[in-house]
Amino acid sequence: MKLKRVTLLGATGSIGSSALDVIARHPERYEVFALTAHRQTDVLFGLCKRHLPRFAVVRDAASATRLREQLKQASIATEVLHGSEGLEAVAEMAEVDCVLAAIVGAAGLMPTLAAVKAGKQVLLANKESLVMAGQLFMAEVQRSGTVLLPIDSEHNAIYQSITRHVPGTLSDCGVRKIILTASGGPFRNTPTQDLAAVTPEQACAHPNWSMGRKISVDSATLMNKGLEVIEARWLFDLPPDKIDVVVHPQSVIHSMVEYIDGSTLAQLGNPDMRTPIAYALAYPERIDAGVKPLDLFEVAQLTFEQPDRARFPSLDLAYAALRSGGTASTILNAANEVAVEAFLSGKLMFLNIADVIAETLQKAGSVSADSLEAVLDADRHGRAVASDIVNRHSC
Ligand code: NAD
Ligand code: MG
Questions:
Q1: How far is CA 238 from CA 137, 230, 306, in A?
Q2: Cα–chain-centroid distance for residue 324?
Q3: Does 134 reside within a domain?
Q4: Strand order in the sheet with 243-247
Q5: CA–CA separation, 294 vs 215, rounded Å?
Q6: 248 in any annotated domain
Q7: Can you give the residue range of the structural domain that contains 77?
Q8: Which of 109, 133, 150 is the last residue of a domain?
Q9: Beta-bridge partner residues of 81
Q10: Dist. CA 235–CA 205, nearest whole Å
Q11: In the prediction, which pLDDT does 2 show?
Q12: Can you tell me the distance from the alpha carbon of 315 to that of 226, in angstroms, rounded to the nearest whole number?
């Protein structure tokens, strides 16, 4: 079997460690080619010792010098690069077969796009790439013929539930709509007046999934589902009114596809990101992911609720940005990143996250998103506008 050489962007994160767990179970299939990290250089050093990648990428020259020294002392031959050039280099090098995009936030866009342009197989966890620049991103996927496989559990479930027995669009295949499931997050039953005082620790304590801090807050505001609606629009080329959201607190059904003949297909499993990661890594084969089989008797009940759009206005902000088109989604993403960061560092109240995003969308104004410059400009502008608003709200 030919070894698949994998670049893992964002190796020190939650998705990164789940991916390395799956990869380590199949040394006959995968070789870790490159690992990247932003701040956690010591954690990256530990991963280099364990997985012996050819390249490691860190944030800046000073961190690179430190890591090089550590590697030298441990007699490890990993070469160290740094900065955005380093990230893009390991995403597009000729030896790489597959790039797993697991950097969080807008920082993931450029290296992921570099992998797409280079025609690598791309396993996408970094949903923000598609939220920021979906139109451009998918145009590059078309142009380069790259194989793009979603790792986000909902999109992976939909991918698995689409039966393409005829060529053409999803409508041609009889798809009426897709239904994204949402756990409802840690505040599903918290009254609005109590939401005012919630802390970052409470927001990051997700009932079903263990994830990085930014996506945990996104899950608590339901913005994560909003970002996923936009992600689905681009991945599956569906208009917003064919993408529904249902709250399903058990997180066992990872999403569904409804067909015109009355069939609804779903993918089920324990909430463990190693399942979608293994699916994407091995596609079209299947491999062991180390995930416990689903025990239906233990699950016992699957329940469904409407999302509470009044308590969690971020979901509708995302639909509105998607409907208005152009760089509105880029601005939504930028404002969300600024607001979540401010919340995590104690500068903004939980309930003000959605206010900051709504006001930024009103003030920033959107333009056509058909060039990378327009997208990057909108991202910068959205951040500047949102930061001003955060400063006004600062607690
Ligand atoms: P995380 O915070 O645990 O890890 C983020 C990784 O990105 C780390 O390796 C970090 O070093 C790197 N990083 C952060 N900022 C960077 C920057 N400016 N430049 C370069 N690298 C940077 O995040 P996570 O939970 O693993 O999520 C990663 C991505 O996967 C996000 O886009 C998230 O939405 C998506 N995702 C995560 C999950 C999950 O279960 N964690 C599920 C679905 C999708
Ligand atoms: Mg998801």
A1: 15, 10, 21
A2: 22
A3: yes
A4: 243-247, 175-182, 253-259, 264-268
A5: 25
A6: no
A7: 4-150
A8: 150
A9: 57
A10: 29
A11: 87
A12: 5
| pLDDT at site 395 | 67
- Residues of the chain where predicted confidence (pLDDT) is lower than 70: 395
Q: How many angstroms does the Cα of residue 181 sit away from the middle of ligand 2?
A: 9
Determine which residue's CA is closest to atom 18 belonging to ligand 1. 107
Give yes or no for a contact between 336 and 381, defined as CB atoms under 8 angstroms apart. Answer: no
**Ligand lying nearest the CA atom of residue 91:** 1
> In this structure, is residue 34 part of a structural domain?
yes
Task: Check whether the bond before 284 is cis (ω within 30° of 0).
Answer: yes
Residue 304's CB is within 10 A of a number of other CB atoms, namely 12
Domain boundary among 98, 119, 150: 150
- DSSP codes joined into one string, 41-95: HHHHHHHHHHH--SEEEESSHHHHHHHHHHHHHTT---EEEEHHHHHHHHHH-TT
262 domain-assigned: no
Query: Ligand 2 centre from 274 Cα, in Å?
Result: 13
Structure tokens, 324? 């208005």
> Residue 357's domain is classified under what CATH number?
1.10.1740.10
d(CA 152, CA 277): 9
Query: Distance (Å, rounded) from C-alpha 351 to C-alpha 342?
Result: 12
Q: Which atom belonging to ligand 1 lies closest to the Cα atom of 105?
A: 32
CATH of the domain at 108: 3.40.50.720
